[in-house]
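Open question from group meeting: does this chain pack into something compact, or does most of it stay loose? Before anyone orders reagents, we agreed to write out a predicted structure and look at it together. Recording both the input and the output here so the notebook holds the full record.
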Amino acid sequence: MPDKSNKISQFWQELKRRNVVRVMTVYAGVAFVILELVDIIAEPLKLPSWLLPVVIVMLSIGFIIAIILSWIYDIHPEGGIVKTETTDKIKVEDIPKSSSSWKIASYISFVVIVTLIVLNIVPRTGKKEILDKSIAVLPFENLSEESGNEYFVDGLVDDLLNRISLIEELKVISRTSSEMYRKKGDKSVPQIAEELNVAYILEGSVQRYGKKARVTVQLIDAKNDDHIWADSYDRDIDDVFQTQREIALKIASELNEILTSEQEEMIQQDNTGNVRALELYQMGRFYWNKRTGDGFEKSIKYFEQAIETDPGYGLAYANLADTYILMALQGHINKQVGRDRSEELALKALEIDGNLGEAYTVLGQIYDYVDWEWEKAENAFQSALALSPNYSTAHKYYAEHLYITGQNDKARMHMDKALELDPLSFIVRLTSAQFYYHQGYFEEALRELDISDEIQAGHPWTSQYRFFCYWQLGQEDESYEALERWIQPSTHYNRETADSIFSKSGLKAVLEWIVEIDIVRAEEHPKLTYGIANELAMLGRYEEALLWLEKAFQLHTLSPWISFNFNYRSLHDNPRFRAILQGMGLED
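Structure tokens returned:
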């Protein structure tokens, strides 16, 4: 061991004698500066995205050459380049002293490297990091005289979003969040960009006159509030999709995105070439976004009309499939009937267009929430995200799948990605709050619920989880206030009775009263079985909770969230609870 250590020490001394170490330090400092300069000037000078990797490769090759040359040659203190003598040919007293210039260069390089590392690694406080390749498409202004043309205008925005969302390297904010700025008021473009955490904003307007349409767009560098590019397109209505293709490719070009031939082909592919079908589809989306039974019914009518108008409209099939599975899961229609219809439509959508991430996302929901086929769900979500990396809904449902199957860290990563792509979506924000609750992070859950309320005030689902959080935190008054708001829309719970029970016996007695009512209702509404088990578990009545969980399992009303539901944490080692998980394929 001493001999080996001595050899290493001798080698290190030889490296220093030949100035190899100093050359490495100086080279590293210069390389760092070059890389930073390239990174800084790439954006304003519109340099291609492949330039930085090429510079890195060249600097790496140069680094190896510099080490070899520094081993063989040296700069003599008196000037000139000389060949370095080997150790056996030189005496200690004859070793030339290093020049002061080498020492100064080494010190400067060291300081430069440390400074750049600090600037790049130490987080900037107070502001979120904004990705250079990120964009939000704001709702286009309808300049047409007829207000009915709004569906046409919104359809063009959706179509454009679908195209640019296919660019994997580009973060594209979801329509749900950008829609919040339809009436932006006094907010400036930089303000909007900061709220959405993007670097670029696309604004536009559409004017339809007769059989023609004028589409005007402008791409804005939000940080500097500078117009990068603007253009107007006057086309026949039937040629408007060609305009969409040109705009999408122009955006990619202006943001220095080098598209693969496959990406370019997908961006230029039209979901429909029929303007009327696009309008009908958009009307369907309008009613779908209400997320009510009546809204779903109306959306089905418009999606079906869109398909009648254009039988090759794969995206309309995918959205129709999505509507049926949501209606089935929310109890608006028979669960199995809705599931079968949804799968049929999703597969039809993929038969028409195999690149629809939306259709794969629907299949993932079916396999998770109805079939309990976890591997099939995993494959469906993987396909969805590979095809539609900017589809926030796919990230949200995949996060749910990962929590169900016990992959919590990966689940939070996809949940955060969904929030990044759709920060102002009520359902995405609520789901994030629900996950925080079930992991036992009640304060974090409440913060997310605050944001949910800002987006959509007074929703009963928000109040439900506020009730859960305050219950676990032992804050009875706050918990009861949330409980009141949760049950208020229902006609089954008398408000005055609830107030009386709370004032006399406290919060626990109110929940016990609700359980009694729900048990009676469950005879006609089997879907309540899982909720009753949840309430009993909160009350600590675990044996009764297990009975209702077993009943829910038999009726197939059991939620896969049972695997990570915080309220069942005390049952995880119970053989009966584990048997339920095993029956669902969730227990190894």
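Observations to bring back to the group:
Confidence is low (pLDDT under 50) at residues 92-96, 119-129.
Residues 274-424 form a domain with the Serine Threonine Protein Phosphatase 5, Tetratricopeptide repeat fold (CATH 1.25.40.10).
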